Amino acid sequence: MHLAQVTQKDTEGRMQLRLLAQQKAEHAWALLDDAENRLWIEQADYNEGALVLVELSPLRQIQQIQDATHWILALVEQYLTVGMTPVLLQEEVQRAEQWRQSLTLKSQELGRRALEIEARRDQIQELEENLKIEKEKLEQMAAQVRANLNGKPCPPPEPES
Question: How far apart are CA 141 and CA 135, in angstroms?
């Protein structure tokens, strides 16, 4: 879909269209360079200066043409009557970009914290294992001391692993 302007009419009833913008997505349009964006069509239903919506085929053949008045008025009603200005839209874009950057930083911070927590959990598990080994050694030593106190011979200490 293109937005075009009728630039001239010839004596044979043809009119020249200057393509002004091309629709890239549902709500995204791109302005076109004036250089190679003119076409002649056989229909002469529009006056010079009129804005029209033109649907082109991939071979730049006109498939449909319609007056752009209703479309432009809908844009005005939808965006401009609520105070949406290009400056406001740019501010919203900047605010969204700052929000995205903030979320990225927070995500990175959460990832870093998760790694720290994982490392601490590994340290705690290692300490628990060491404490368990030490407890077993102490229990063995206590059993040897009790055995010595009762006059029984001490069993030989178990080898450390």
Answer: 10
CA 158 from centre of chain: 62
Per the listing, tokens 């605010």 go with: 95
Model confidence at 153, pLDDT cuts 50, 70, 90, reads low
Give pLDDT, residue 61: 79
Residue 150, CB half-sphere, CA atoms under 13 Å: how many? Answer: 9
Query: What is the domain partition of the chain in residue ranges?
Result: 2-80
- Whether the full predicted model's pTM is greater than 0.85, yes or no, is no
Rounded to the nearest 10°, the torsion over CA 134, 137, 141, 143 is: 110
pLDDT in tens, 99-146: 999 999 999 999 999 999 999 999 999 999 999 999 999 999 999 888
Give the per-residue SS3 of 99-147.
HHHHHHHHHHHHHHHHHHHHHHHHHHHHHHHHHHHHHHHHHHHHHHHHH
Q: Which of 21, 22, 48, 18 is nearest to 35 (CA)?
A: 18
DSSP code string of 66-112: EESHHHHHHHIIIIITTT--HHHHHHHHHHHHHHHHHHHHHHHHHHH
- Calculate the dihedral angle through the C-alpha atoms of 136, 142, 143, 145, rounding to the nearest 10 degrees: 150
